[in-house]
Amino acid sequence: MRTLHDLRDEMLAVARGTQPVPPVQSVIDGEAISGLLGVLTPANRALMQLIAAKRPETVSRLAQLADRAQPNVSRALQDLAKHGLVRLVRDGMSIRPELIAAEIDVDLVRGTCRVVPMAVS
């Protein structure tokens, strides 16, 4: 499993143009697909929309924006991070949530799912 530092280094290399954009992440394991789809609750989707729109500097700020308890938001973010939808970036003593996924495509016929990453800007 890659560390947050590895992911950050990869993201910076892509932004500099020294590394190509990584391929879309595909999931074909039925249990993994169920887990991925299971974390896409309305409350978690609202968190991802807030991260995209407001770019909160800390998890605490995201909790305020969402009007949810910070421990509840932290647990939700950990679940979303486990499935590759958000990234939790340590910034000194704080943790900043970042949205990774731009979209999720589900192919019901093939039983597959893929996470499409955000475009690097």
TrEMBL record:
List the top taxonomic levels of the source.
Answer: Bacteria, Pseudomonadati, Pseudomonadota, Alphaproteobacteria, Rhodospirillales
A Pfam family: HVO_A0114
State what protein this is by name: Helix-turn-helix domain-containing protein
| SMART domains referenced in this protein's UniProt entry, alphabetically | HTH_ARSR (SM00418)
Q: What are the coiled-coil residue ranges?
A: none
The organism's superkingdom is given as Bacteria
Q: Which organism is this entry from?
A: Azospirillum melinis
Domain called HTH arsR-type: residue spans: 35-110
Q: Which InterPro entries match?
A: HTH_ArsR_DNA-bd_dom, WH-like_DNA-bd_sf, WH_DNA-bd_sf
